Amino acid sequence: MRSVIDIVDLSVEEINGLLSTAKDIIKHPKKYSKKCKGKKIATLFFEPSTRTRLSFEAAMIELGGSAIGFSSPSSSSASKGESISDTAKVVSKYADIIAMRHYHEGAPLVASLNGDIPVINAGDGGHCHPTQTLADLLTISREKGSIDNLTVGFCGDLKYGRTVHSLIGALARYKNVKIVLISPKELAIPSYVKEDVLDKYNMEYIETANLEEALPTLDVLYMTRIQAERFTDKAEYERLKDSYVLTREKLNKAKEDTIVLHPLPRVNEISVDVDDDKRACYFEQVENGKFMRMALILMLLDIAKKDKSKYKIDDSKIVYNKFKCKNPVCICQTEQELKGMAKDCDGVWRCVYCDKNL
Amino acid sequence: MRSVIDIVDLSVEEINGLLSTAKDIIKHPKKYSKKCKGKKIATLFFEPSTRTRLSFEAAMIELGGSAIGFSSPSSSSASKGESISDTAKVVSKYADIIAMRHYHEGAPLVASLNGDIPVINAGDGGHCHPTQTLADLLTISREKGSIDNLTVGFCGDLKYGRTVHSLIGALARYKNVKIVLISPKELAIPSYVKEDVLDKYNMEYIETANLEEALPTLDVLYMTRIQAERFTDKAEYERLKDSYVLTREKLNKAKEDTIVLHPLPRVNEISVDVDDDKRACYFEQVENGKFMRMALILMLLDIAKKDKSKYKIDDSKIVYNKFKCKNPVCICQTEQELKGMAKDCDGVWRCVYCDKNL
Amino acid sequence: MRSVIDIVDLSVEEINGLLSTAKDIIKHPKKYSKKCKGKKIATLFFEPSTRTRLSFEAAMIELGGSAIGFSSPSSSSASKGESISDTAKVVSKYADIIAMRHYHEGAPLVASLNGDIPVINAGDGGHCHPTQTLADLLTISREKGSIDNLTVGFCGDLKYGRTVHSLIGALARYKNVKIVLISPKELAIPSYVKEDVLDKYNMEYIETANLEEALPTLDVLYMTRIQAERFTDKAEYERLKDSYVLTREKLNKAKEDTIVLHPLPRVNEISVDVDDDKRACYFEQVENGKFMRMALILMLLDIAKKDKSKYKIDDSKIVYNKFKCKNPVCICQTEQELKGMAKDCDGVWRCVYCDKNL
């Protein structure tokens, strides 16, 4: 049994396999239209997310299967205090695979350790959202022909943006990818991303506060939203915000074949008049997300068919019940009788559920 | 690409075609049970409406397709501030056709102008609800044999009832339909409906406050609800309300073959003991709504198959960004970077989104 | 037309037939995978319940059919004041069978009396929840080989637990079933259950407050939750609560082949470390619920195919509009123009909707 909680749960070979499958689905959709006949995905969304939920449901339906589930916690048994573990065990009796979104970090891991079917993390708080990264990778691969040898700029909120951290982590495993980090100081990339990824994998990277200067150097521009509430100094926010809005005028400074990505939803960080520019690929990215979810569902159901053993994590480096996680949105704060799990990451203890330092 | 936002988007020939298709579906349901195999409808309901949503979903399922969507804005990305335009572009990647209900007037038009798939307006505020009118027309056609040469009474709230205005507009295009308008003065038909429809199409009509007197003259009685909150003078409401409730006793004054319609939900404007009378057709009307939605889905998907160009509106009479719409529930008040559109209607400028005078 | 509102609506022969069908479904799932092709279940959940709703939807999908519906009243037309009767009449036009959960006792009965399709009660307040009882019976039958000749213990809240009353009622119709009632005095079984079921059917039963003492005698242990709010004396609750929590240690006093059931969701009345014990059958019970719902859907659709007459109740003992039900959560308090119905139960008048004494 396999589950996908974090993008790093997938090897590069597996990711490349998913990219191949997705491209084959795009070319030959009919070949796949009955692959999951009789199968059901349970979309357990403890937090609303139309885009992601509909993407998983559309993916399963296009594979010939069905979807059941809920779209907000108020319409679920969570309001009666049911644990994630029990929910996963129960839903295992109804469905073949789970896509779970939860406001508690680590909830999908708890589900995967307790249920009898594969779990795909569809976003757990600020922690992980691996299928977004898969959508990003397919878009880059389709639009640029390859993921190697690219200069990829990330613009906006690089401090809190989990999609940014996750995509950088994935890109680290490809060849010769240069990273350009474009953000105000307040929202600069955290030092642990530099240490754990950029430095560790010897990635070439530069940091800048100037989008317009960086633009001409980029093959890929990954935009994210800057939220007012991230700033302590509101005047600073007002001064800065417009410089990180992508307009048609600014885009003219980019190369002809630069592609613009955005995890969506956007509010106004990309002007609507950019949408018709052929470099704008964020709606293609949405569709690519569906194709990668189809590929991932196929892969996980295929593994589950052959290996019915419960999902396990490598516990060689794990210590149980020794540390108490202090992350207020970690699932370990609320889940009934959950044993604490800490892992040794190069001398630092981290919570296995939420990856925060202990 | 075609979308249906307003009943007037459909020609009489198209409406008659839909009526024929619906009747054929009723006769030969199996013939249609796989017509939409592999197709998906997205039911995007920013405002709850069980009846209409389930009707669209049942329609698509009976055509062999599937439904995805949401039933209230709290479980959608709208709470994150996503624009209707982006939602439409995103959902175009997941589904083949959209049915949208929204509290903002004009929202389905914005969706149809931006998405890549047909949009059916499933009700936008007090503006339009064309598939209700299609349900009404099929019911009249099936029960009376024809839509021509009928006397149709409308009873209750004729001032705010969008279903009333819409059905009168549709009937104007048939032959020799007489209209009887039954309401208290406070809720009389607006003068623009008289000018734009009744007078313009030379329809014979009378206005009366007395349901019981009008009843014997009618072939069709279309009931609507009178809401207390529409009256400034509550004593007046108390005095009047019972005279617009249809009871079995009152119905006895109608002809043997009069039919009673109601867009539902009703509260108490039709007494429950009328339900068993053979003239009561409001539950047949519900089923006819499903059949007309099936016919409409088939028609729009068929057009979309042949013509993949974006949905456009005739802009020969449109002026951009000249007027500011003052309707507080018009979509132009909230949608990001939406250009204002005004159309010249016989010398009066109207907002293209909500049809209100500018 | 048949509906199932209360477990007693089913004869022992019918229950045994459902058990047989469910076991055949388990053995030969493919044989059933297209039985409901083209059929739709409407899951009308006026109160959230993920487990039950997903179970009905999974059941219909595994029979080859589809599901439509809603998961909370806020996303339904109930917020517009529509009656249950009208909702049932409307949904009859969209679906082939209804599963309804409602906070008003008797709502599914009102639906079944007014709609044109079979209704399954999926839980109406504290009144009935027959498919839970069917899940319980299949679990006992599969795990113990038979339902006859067993000693069945019920532990926890026996006063308010509708699943307990319902299962005892069902067991009364099998041979030589002994009942052990384990609860604090505050939550003892109501006297009407003793009179109407235990005494009436000459069932052997004992009452005790001690779970540990009772455990070694049981073939089946049915656990339920004790809620703090049931106690007037909070100190009493604190003193008692742990003695009704099933731990691995306590379970060691049970026989090797005792089975533990729970209607779920649990909070902490069964310790998580019991889950891996082979005697823990509450997750199997969940799956059995799905299989019994499949069997019940098949049975009701089969009857509806042959007999299209409206659902009726035996009204030989019913008196209309004579008594006024005082149960504040009875559907008769809110449903428009609903006639009161009282039935004579051995000299006591009871409301037909909620079964409460008048």
Could you state the CATH homologous superfamily of the largest domain in chain A?
Aspartate/ornithine carbamoyltransferase
General shape of chain A: globular
- Average pLDDT metric of chain A: 94
What's the CATH topology name of the largest domain in chain A? Rossmann fold
Helix content class of chain A: 25-40%
Query: CATH class of the largest domain in chain A, please?
Result: Alpha Beta
- Mind summarizing the main beta sheet of chain A? 5 strands, parallel
Element order of chain A: H for helix, E for strand: HHEHEHEHEHEHEHEHEHHEHEEE
Strand order of the largest sheet of chain A: 7-6-5-8-9
Number of helices of chain A: 12
* Largest interface (CB < 8 Å): A-B, 31 and 29 residues
What is the tally of beta strands of chain A? 12
User: What are the segments of chain A in which pLDDT stays under 50 over at least 5 consecutive residues?
Assistant: none
